[in-house]
Amino acid sequence: MAERANGILLDTSVVVAHLRGRIDLQSLATADEPLFLPLVALGELYRGVLKSSRPEFNRAKVDEFLQIAAVLSPDVATADIYARIAQALEVKGTPIPENDIWIAAVALECDMPLATRDDHFRKIDKLDILWW
Description:
- The protein has one domain (8-118): 3-Layer(aba) Sandwich (Rossmann fold), CATH 3.40.50.1010.
- The protein contains 6 helices and 5 strands.
- It has helices at 12-19, 25-28, 39-51, 55-65, 76-92, 98-110; strands spanning 8-10, 35-38, 69-72, 114-116, 129-131.
- A 5-stranded parallel beta sheet has the order 3-2-1-4-5.
- Helix 3 packs antiparallel against helix 4 (55-65).
């Protein structure tokens, strides 16, 4: 496995698996690898909370999770990378969900591997993926 940048970016899919007890993110990352969550992934988590049968319980679980992962907000550089990824995917005829393009843009901007369970991230060139 290639040497990782300092930190791991988390896709919504791995956070959901963690919250459901299917994986333990803290045991998958080493002690010196901080965990980060893109703001757009947090929005996806909060949307899932609102759609759930137990929104108050699930909101508390997400908020508690934020104690182990720092939220990263997109900026102008993220938008530029997003546009380049979206254009490349369009040219190749291999679209993926818009939010996932933003998540990938954060990973590329921060030079962090992306921990995910979603196969469509393979379509993005130069993205370092951890399959959790």
